[in-house]
Amino acid sequence: AFIAIGIITFIAGIHNPSKGGKFYYYMITISCCLAGGGVSIRHLYLENNPPELFDCGADLGYLLEAFPLTKIFPMIFRGTGDCSEVPWTFMGMSLAAWALAWFIIFTVSIIVFGFLKHLRSEKTI
Fold this sequence. Notes:
CATH topology: Bromodomain-like
CATH class: Mainly Alpha
Number of domains: 1
């Protein structure tokens, strides 16, 4: 999701759309932030409530070769025991917690700065 946010904002910067186009870029970027935040929340849930099984499952390469995409996504997000292990923390927070924090920061900044810029542009007529 971070890569998608970066690509979308890079394209928006190059494209330099009008007000209506900016709205669509804002919405697409916010959608990516919300999707990434959802995955982060799911991972935080798995970290704090590990399932009873202790198998992480097959790697993504094998899944792509062996199963159709419609079955791969539920298998990826199911999560299991060892996957809930937190390998490292920074300032007491796991990678999933940091990702969620940044997704929230990105979402709030897009809403606040996009909205404030829109209000300022309406006042300068």
